[in-house]
UniProtKB/TrEMBL annotation:
<dbReference type="InterPro" id="IPR029066">
    <property type="entry name" value="PLP-binding_barrel"/>
</dbReference>
<feature type="domain" description="Orn/DAP/Arg decarboxylase 2 N-terminal">
    <location>
        <begin position="43"/>
        <end position="284"/>
    </location>
</feature>
<comment type="similarity">
    <text>Belongs to the Orn/Lys/Arg decarboxylase class-II family.</text>
</comment>
<dbReference type="InterPro" id="IPR002433">
    <property type="entry name" value="Orn_de-COase"/>
</dbReference>
<protein>
    <recommendedName>
        <fullName>Orn/DAP/Arg decarboxylase 2 N-terminal domain-containing protein</fullName>
    </recommendedName>
</protein>
<feature type="active site" description="Proton donor">
    <location>
        <position position="364"/>
    </location>
</feature>
<dbReference type="InterPro" id="IPR022644">
    <property type="entry name" value="De-COase2_N"/>
</dbReference>
<keyword id="KW-0456">Lyase</keyword>
<dbReference type="GO" id="GO:0005737">
    <property type="term" value="C:cytoplasm"/>
</dbReference>
<feature type="modified residue" description="N6-(pyridoxal phosphate)lysine">
    <location>
        <position position="71"/>
    </location>
</feature>
<dbReference type="InterPro" id="IPR009006">
    <property type="entry name" value="Ala_racemase/Decarboxylase_C"/>
</dbReference>
<dbReference type="GO" id="GO:0004586">
    <property type="term" value="F:ornithine decarboxylase activity"/>
</dbReference>
<comment type="function">
    <text>Catalyzes the first and rate-limiting step of polyamine biosynthesis that converts ornithine into putrescine, which is the precursor for the polyamines, spermidine and spermine. Polyamines are essential for cell proliferation and are implicated in cellular processes, ranging from DNA replication to apoptosis.</text>
</comment>
<dbReference type="Pfam" id="PF02784">
    <property type="entry name" value="Orn_Arg_deC_N"/>
</dbReference>
<dbReference type="GO" id="GO:0033387">
    <property type="term" value="P:putrescine biosynthetic process from arginine, via ornithine"/>
</dbReference>
<dbReference type="InterPro" id="IPR000183">
    <property type="entry name" value="Orn/DAP/Arg_de-COase"/>
</dbReference>
<keyword id="KW-0663">Pyridoxal phosphate</keyword>
Length: 461
């Protein structure tokens, strides 16, 4: 294994912002990839999130809700970090289950949390010893009876109101209260084991009362379960917890409402095991994306590209910037996740005048617009624009449409969270490899790992 510590840059991220890390990364790159868009992932941020979760919701075990893995963030280093921290995983398909099992995660730390599963995927889960799975309809119960009769089932209910969530899921998944009795009756007739209830208040939930009402509804369903001869002992409170620094509501604010509700409706004496499926919470703020301005157009203000007026000396200009990642790449979050993104500059332009500007992706498609209108100082080709909070629902659905490459990720972590990860004991995977190569805190720059792990910097405090 060749070890190339040449681009070694040590960044003290205790003082630096993600922007400074991006700056360091940009300046330390080779000539070939100098202007490629890039992600910087602060793995310490994920460790910090895990500690925050444990402090706020100590009695709720997080199962990293990548449902789907290919939806939220399936970065192999992120998965390794979370596996190492001890989270469980919620999976939506055979491939996701395979990926997580490869990390040596035990089957009991996996929930197959897709209420509408493919027969062969259910059989695969059965073969691999994964027992916990969700359902929300009668046909699914018959499928499970056929393919995995010993499964431990979790009834997914629809939240009463998910209208204040960034992405609503209630129109697709979850049964309503009226259907609960009928479904449990069928489950009983089929001699299936139902162990609990799950809900998802919608991804990116900004209403803490949505959790409270869903917890109350879950308790009602627990009681209905008793009347059908079931004694549920698992509550899965799903995901939806915001993970970005700029969130309208903080995780702590949600917990302030959620914890008393859990205590009220599920007192300790009930002995209910609680789990959750947080996705964006763990990853959103850990990733910062830097894009390069590859082209620029000046148009008269208010005219836009479609205006046929040439810019004259009397016009106030407006600038259209074309950058090398867009809505067919990492910014697919604008379409699928209804995300809002905010451009940030890496240099100090505070004394420069601002102009009306728009930011466009690199593909030849008019839809590929990242920011329709913002105010920026005049930038030039080759300048960088940075977007924070880009870890959730970004790179997973990114495509290479028009031959545009996906940005590579550079990983950073401080020494303290690194040690908290106890990386040397890691059974498998990249962190172990990096850990073994760590002497002297070099950046790993081994071609063998370039696809998944182009560079990890371990930083001294
Ligand atoms: N669990 C399930 C079943 C999901 O569908 C999703 C996302 O859609 C998640 C968990 C993760 O949700 P979030 O990222 O909002 O925490």
């Amino acid at each position: 294994m060749k070890h190339v510590p040449m681009n070694t840059v040590f960044v003290d991220i205790t003082k630096d912002t993600p922007i400074n890390i991006v700056k360091q990364r940009i300046s330390s790159r080779g000539r070939e990839d100098k202007d490629d868009a890039l992600f910087v992932a602060d793995l310490g941020d994920i460790v910090h999130k895990y500690k925050t979760w444990k402090a706020q919701l100590p009695h709720v075990a997080p199962f990293y809700g990548k449902s789907s893995l290919f939806k939220c963030n399936d970065d192999p280093v992120v998965l390794e970090v979370l596996a190492q921290l001890g989270t469980g995983f919620d999976c939506a398909s055979k491939v996701e289950i395979q990926k997580i099992l490869e990390l040596k995660v035990k089957p009991e730390r996996i929930v197959y949390a897709n209420p509408c599963k493919q027969n062969s995927h259910i059989r695969y889960a059965a073969k691999k010893g994964i027992t916990k799975m969700t359902f929300d309809n009668e046909i699914e119960l018959h499928k499970i009876k056929l393919n995995h009769p010993k499964a431990e089932l979790i009834l997914r209910i629809a939240p009463p109101d998910d209208s204040k969530s960034q992405c609503q899921l209630g129109m697709k998944y979850g049964c309503n209260l009226k259907a609960v009795s009928r479904l449990l009756k069928v489950a009983k007739q089929l001699d299936l084991c139902v162990i609990g209830v799950s809900f998802h208040v919608g991804s990116g939930c900004f209403d803490r009362m949505a959790y409270v009402t869903a917890v109350a509804l879950s308790r009602t369903v627990f009681d209905i379960g008793e009347s059908h001869g079931y004694h549920f002992d698992l509550l899965d409170i799903g995901g939806g917890f915001p993970g970005q620094k700029s969130s309208k509501i903080s995780f702590e604010e949600i917990c302030d409402a959620l914890c008393p509700a859990l205590d009220e409706y599920f007192p300790k004496s009930m002995g209910v095991h609680m789990i959750a499926e947080p996705g964006r919470f763990f990853v959103a703020s850990a990733f910062t994306l830097a894009v390069n301005i590859i082209a620029k157009r000046a148009v008269p203000r208010g005219e836009g590209y479609l205006g046929d007026k040439e810019l004259t000396a009397n016009d106030e200009p407006s600038f259209m910037y074309y950058v090398n990642d867009g809505v067919y790449g990492s910014f697919n979050c604008l379409l699928y996740d209804h995300a809002e993104v905010k451009p940030t500059l890496i240099d100090d332009y505070s004394s420069e005048p601002n102009f009306t500007s728009s930011i466009w992706g690199p593909t030849c498609d008019g839809l590929d617009c990242i920011v329709e209108k913002c105010f920026l100082p005049e930038l030039v080709d080759g300048d960088w624009i940075v977007f924070r909070d880009m870890g959730a629902y970004t790179m997973c659905a990114a495509s290479n449409f028009n031959g545009m490459p996906k940005p590579r990720c550079h990983y950073v972590i401080q020494d303290l969270p690194w040690h908290q990860l106890n990386a040397k004991k890691c059974g498998s995977g990249l962190l172990r490899v990096v850990s073994e190569m760590k002497s002297g805190h070099e950046i790993l720059d081994d071609p063998e790992y370039h696809d998944v792990c182009p560079a990890i910097a371990v930083i001294d405090n």
